[in-house]
Amino acid sequence: MKNEKETILTDQLRLEETEVYQFIAVEAASLLPTLRRYVLKFNLAKGYKQVADTAEDVLQDVIVEALKNPSRLAGVRIPKAWFLGIAVNVIRQRLDKPEFQHKMVAPEIVEENQIFDRLVKTGAVMEDTVVNNIQFEDMLALTTMANRSILRMAFKERLSGEEIAERLGVNPSSARSRLRRALNQLRDNWLAQEGEGEGYEGNNRS
Amino acid sequence: MKDMKEITEVERLKLKREKALYNYLNALERGDLDTVQAFLTQAEADLSLEQMLLDLNEDYAAEEQTAVFRLEDDRLVQQLLEQHLQIATEVNEETEPELTPLTIMDVLDKMKNDAVMRGQSLFQIEKYKLALRENVTELPEDLSKYSVSHLFQQLNIEADVFFQKAFRDASILLAMGRETHQAQLAAARRQTPRKPGKPRR
């Protein structure tokens, strides 16, 4: 009886390992561009060659980690985000080593969420609520004409990244990059106007 | 009467995803591991978020490919020049080829070319190019945000954070391209057979 149970468990484990193995064999290499970006952005290496080599090392560690714990994804679709999540953990472990301590940077305190939420709130106006409309246009005045246009699409017309991309004739990722640049420019100019200490909440008094 | 412009649940969900991606990209830019990790955990269970990640991955791959093609093109032009004008330099196996250091103007030129390709405004770039036209300051090795900001201070240029970021990105890409080019030249040199009759020093 015990042997039968053990056999079933072993078979199950093999199946899970096979699923993870297949996923790695087919998909893992395609994620190298993102891994290289992580290595670069998290300051794990500098220069193309070093970044490429380090990303390959990270990939190797991620594969080892993924194969260690295949049961976590038993019977479900294996998401690429899961794989990248392991990569971030591997990078974190590497950054914890003494030689990288000096490179660690404290996250900036930024009002990313406030700027986004405020645009959602003021962009979603009702026909007769002109106050929000004015606030929305006032905020947009802090950016360039091109940025205003993309911000209107996102927050006034509430188009998704794909829909904005279609309208601009670019791919969704480029559209989102442009939206992010527009939001960050708006945030920086807003902060410069309001004074660093005050932020968005201070402006809500009106 | 229900307002036609009220946000629907579908739109709310779309905006939530766009906001998550916005936070992820900003976190990646400033090296914030926790926020990146939180986004990836969220994306594990959300196919749309995962698709956004894959779109980005494709973009990164295309960007890298473009950089490699550009280097290949440079190398081809160099080869043609050497072939037709017979100005090939002697290969000296003991020394690396000396490339001139990258300067601020190189970066501004790259930014200008990129802006032309994308149909973006050249006003700011041209303004700084004009202000720095005689300047030959080399690009610092450290390309952190702080270092770039310090560089602009030294140059007495009041560029906004947005421009500084674009400058930094262009500098990193240019420096990466230069390193790859050097590595390729070194590899090519190793494979080039020595011309007969040239005694080794």
CA radius of gyration of chain A is: 24 Å
Number of strands of chain A: 0
Number of helices of chain B: 7
State the low-pLDDT regions of chain B, or none.
Answer: 197-201
**What pair of chains forms the biggest interface?**
A-B, 59 and 59 residues
Number of domains of chain A: 2
Strand content of chain B: under 5%
Counting structural domains of chain B, the number is 2
Instruction: Summarize the main sheet of chain B.
Output: none
- How far the N terminus sits from the C terminus of chain B, by CA atoms, comes to 92 Å
Number of strands of chain B: 0
Task: Give the biggest beta sheet of chain A.
Answer: none
* Count of helical regions of chain A: 10
- Give the proportion of residues in helices of chain B: 55-70%
Which regions of chain A are unreliable across 5 or more consecutive residues at pLDDT < 50?
Answer: 197-206
Helix vs. strand class of chain A: mainly alpha
**What is the terminal-to-terminal distance of chain A?**
74 Å
Q: What is the gyration radius of chain B calculated from CA atoms?
A: 23 Å
Q: Could you state the order of secondary-structure elements of chain B as H and E?
A: HHHHHHH
